[in-house]
Amino acid sequence: MPWEPRGRAVRLVAGLWMVAAFLLGVVYRSNLKAMLIVQSITLPFDSIEELVEAGFPTAVVKDSSIHRDIMAADDEEILGRLRKQILVYGGKKVIEGIVNSLDGLHPCIGITTALQDIIQSDFSRLGRCRVYMMSNSFLGPLSLSFAFPKGSTLKHQVDPIIRGLRESGVLAKILSKSDFKATVCLKPISSSLISTNHRPLIFADLHGIITLYSVGKFSDAVFKYF
């Protein structure tokens, strides 16, 4: 060996450094290898604009609020441009449309809570995620409300209760609890094992192993000097 540590203290420091270098080297090498060999997929669309450009037939429920918005939109608007590629399912055909979407025959558009319930049921049945949701929603927040007859005295009594539940986060908690089993299915694909968030390696990915190497070389020089 070009350098043999002398003395117990020097050998102890050198031994600890070699063990640390081995462990960190294995960890960094494994992580970097995983970044290079992770399976890559290309999403056909991840926004309403990309869906329109792709031209995929898209399922909607007949007479739903989304269906009415699409039909009432101007031709120049993004929803109006989507009109020519929608597949309308009504009545008993709605189940058929859901099954076709789960089987990958076509995408579908719906209210987030309804789609989450479908994903939850499919995940509970199969134990895996078969579908993904666009990371960019396009209809914005949707209000959940109770309907009362005009002039009802109950409205003024119920409004403060609903407002309090919403502002305290209780409503959001109740809605999220129904999908606890399918939480992994609701994550963006970039956060799962199959990632589309590929990027070139940067210094931050390597600074640990470089620092370890630099400390080792510096210690080697110091020990040789003394």
Automatic annotation (TrEMBL):
Subcellular location: Cell membrane
Key words of the record: Cell membrane, Glycoprotein, Membrane, Receptor, Transmembrane, Transmembrane helix
InterPro entries per UniProt: Insect_Ionotropic_Sensory_Rcpt
UniProt keyword Membrane present: yes
Keyword Cell membrane: yes
Membrane topology (UniProt): Multi-pass membrane protein
Gene Ontology annotations for the cellular component aspect, listed alphabetically: plasma membrane
Designated name of the protein: Uncharacterized protein
